[in-house]
User: Which sequence fits this backbone?
């Protein structure tokens, strides 16, 4: 949901805003600039430094996830493939989304602001669809364990991720059909606002409320199934097999917990932004302090692109082990290189000393 909030009071900024008020009003009504009027004009070290640092971490961590997946055969499972597709979406947030948002704030230009709106719409839809796919994948893996590999195949993965990416692109771009050529006409402006409200409500329902309901049901069934399996293991397995079976079941529970946490983080980070947008569109909005808007409504949506890879890199055992091995291998290679350099230097010194000794004997 894109807003048109001006947090800083008009009286304080009338003098600064006088020169471009008409242009901004025209752009906003025509849909070219319609989205977020970012709150602090120009670059603000106080408010813009954090997103820049966050973007660097987002890019570094998501690239690490993708590289680990590419270089480790053991990570190339269907579930991890969904996660890497999500990492690619989160990578866009750090590489494109946050830089465009800051550029819009600094330059207040149509070259930056509309693309910033579109990319964040794309990222929000893509993120929730990927988390939905991961949730359904885990549900099938636990509920129908014996048939999982027949149900969730590579072809199914490719079809579902393609659908997620294309749906996110379609949802973010479809609004251009009624925004691009809008005119500064009072009736057309009202129609434009009504169309945007209908669009926002539809997207909120289809790509937030419905997936949330589906995932809540899915995780409820997952934990019920895991609990049922634990009881069956304790009842029917021999003591020698019970520990191994319970360990496997515990791993399934931990994996499900990680993905449930990803869902909760997404809700906590994006729901305030949706609520704020609806308040603005329906005219029920009182401006809170500027730092509140930044911290609780805007910074939070950036944070999901960092929390997702952190959760499954540090939370999932296979990613965690692959990362540990990569770090240990790097350190071992570095140590071997240092040892080789040291041995070469010592050998050179020995050769030099031998040459000196032979020279002294010859004299």
Assistant:
């Amino acid at each position: 949901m894109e807003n048109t909030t001006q947090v800083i009071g008009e009286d304080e900024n009338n003098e600064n805003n006088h020169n471009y008020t008409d242009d901004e009003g025209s752009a906003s009504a025509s849909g070219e600039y319609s989205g977020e009027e970012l709150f602090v004009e120009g670059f603000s070290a106080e408010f813009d430094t954090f997103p820049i640092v966050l973007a660097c971490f987002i890019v570094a961590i998501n690239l690490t996830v993708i590289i680990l997946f590419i270089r480790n055969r053991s990570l190339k499972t269907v579930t991890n493939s969904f996660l890497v597709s999500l990492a690619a979406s989160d990578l866009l947030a750090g590489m494109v989304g946050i830089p465009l948002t800051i550029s819009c704030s600094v330059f207040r230009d149509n070259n930056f602001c509309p693309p910033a709106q579109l990319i964040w719409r794309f990222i929000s839809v893509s993120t929730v669809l990927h988390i939905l796919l991961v949730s359904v994948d885990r549900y099938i893996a636990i509920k129908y364990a014996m048939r999982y590999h027949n149900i969730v195949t590579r072809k199914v993965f490719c079809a579902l991720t393609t659908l997620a990416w294309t749906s996110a692109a379609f949802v973010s771009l479809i609004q251009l059909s009624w925004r691009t050529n809008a005119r500064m006409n009072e009736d057309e402006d009202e129609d434009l606002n009504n169309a945007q409200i209908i669009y926002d409500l539809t997207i909120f329902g289809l790509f937030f409320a419905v997936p949330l309901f589906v995932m809540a049901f899915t995780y409820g069934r997952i934990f019920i199934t895991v609990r049922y399996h634990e009881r069956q293991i304790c009842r029917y397995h021999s003591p020698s097999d019970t520990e191994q079976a319970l360990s496997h079941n515990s791993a399934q529970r931990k994996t499900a917990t990680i993905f449930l946490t990803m869902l909760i983080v997404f809700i906590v980070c994006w729901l305030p932004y949706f609520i704020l947008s609806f308040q603005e569109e329906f005219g029920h909005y009182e401006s809170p302090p500027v730092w509140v808007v930044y911290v609780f409504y805007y910074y939070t949506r950036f944070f999901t692109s960092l929390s997702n890879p952190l959760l499954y890199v540090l939370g999932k055992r296979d990613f965690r082990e692959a990362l540990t091995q990569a770090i240990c291998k790097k350190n071992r290679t570095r140590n071997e290189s240092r040892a080789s350099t040291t041995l070469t230097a010592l050998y050179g010194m020995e050769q030099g000393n031998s040459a000196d000794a032979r020279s002294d004997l010859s004299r």
In short: Residues 10-313 form a domain with the Rhopdopsin 7-helix transmembrane proteins fold (CATH 1.20.1070.10).
